[in-house]
Specification:
With 267 residues, the chain is α/β, with parallel strands linked by helices. Helices cover 34% and strands 16% of the residues. The chain has a four-stranded mixed β-sheet with strand order 4-3-5-6, with helices on both faces. A hairpin with a 4-residue loop joins strand 1 and strand 2. Helix 2 packs across helix 3. The longest helix is centred in the first third of the chain and has 17 residues.
Amino acid sequence: MIALDRAPAPRTLLEILQQSTAAHPEASALDDGNGALSYRELMARVIATAARLHLAGVRRGDRVGIRMPSGTRELYISILAVIAAGAAYVPVDADDPQERADLVFGEAGVRGVITGTGEYSPATASDEPVAASLFEGRPPHPSTSSTPIIEPPRTVDDAWIIFTSGSTGTPKGVAVSHRSAAAFVDAEARLFLQDAPLGPGDRVLAGLSVPFDASSEEMWLAWRHGACLVPAPRALVRSGEDLGPWLVGHGITVVSTVPTLAALWPQ
């Protein structure tokens, strides 16, 4: 039986990832089609990338913009690295107009922006050292997955700031703290498929654009349970009916999406 009358203790998203890494170190955590990363490998890369962001001047409580192509491991490692650095990530779709990116990043007051395949640029000129590429050089050894974080987030710190579409006016940013985000993830874990909970071996579709808040549900459905996040190319997701065969071919076992999209898939 699951005790639904007791809320889990407050914690951060980073602590959730660390717990999954400790419990399932060799399970696949992320598979973007270029090979899967285990939880130990993913955590080691997150820690190394967070350290580079710290060297570039990112500090706990900062905001960092992310505008990277969808479906890549670099995108998700960057999101996790910003979180691990104690900052909040502010996503903008790579296909969105430059005007929206300027508005979102300006309103959020980002310290810098990660673009392309992991290039970090400060928002304003400074004397701080800048990491030209967050992923240059050899990947860190998995044994570094337990290296202490320089300045980890606190439960009161923001995990992300996602802006509304602006269809009814000026886009507005909504900040979500680690305490709230982790509480959502933990609550959903106790409600989602109680009779057959997720775990290592499950493969969760990541088909939503990261500036859409439901993308966080995809990510943490996987990482909260030691499952594997499998990003799908955005063009494939937009096509709708072509996604069905892709799901079968990639062994997807878990999908969290909108009914209109699911209705396009062959039964």
